[in-house]
Amino acid sequence: MSEQGAWSAAGVPGPEPLSVYVHVPWCVRKCPYCDFATKPGTPETIPHQAFGQSLATELDLRWPEGHGLASVYFGGGTPSLWDPVALAAFVRRLLQQRPATRSRAHANGGAAPAVSAPGDLEVTVECNPSELTLCLALKLRDAGATRLSIGVQSFSDTALGFLGRRHSAAQAEAAVRAARAAGLRISTDHIYGLPDERVADALATTKRLLDLGTDHVSAYALTIERDTRFGELARQGRLPTIDEGVVADTYLAIESVLDAAGFTHYEVSNYGRGQERADHNSRVWRQESYLGLGPGAVGTLYAPGWAHHASVGLVPRNTMTSNLEATASRAAPPAPARRIAAPGRGQPHTDEASETPRPAYRWRNSGSVSGYLNALGERRLPNADTETMTRADIGLEALILGLRTCDGAAIAHLTPDLRHRADRLRAADRLEQTATHYRVPRQAWLHLDALLRAL
Ligand code: SF4
Question: How far apart are the C-alpha atoms of 300 and 320, rounded to whole Å?
Answer without folding.
Answer: 15
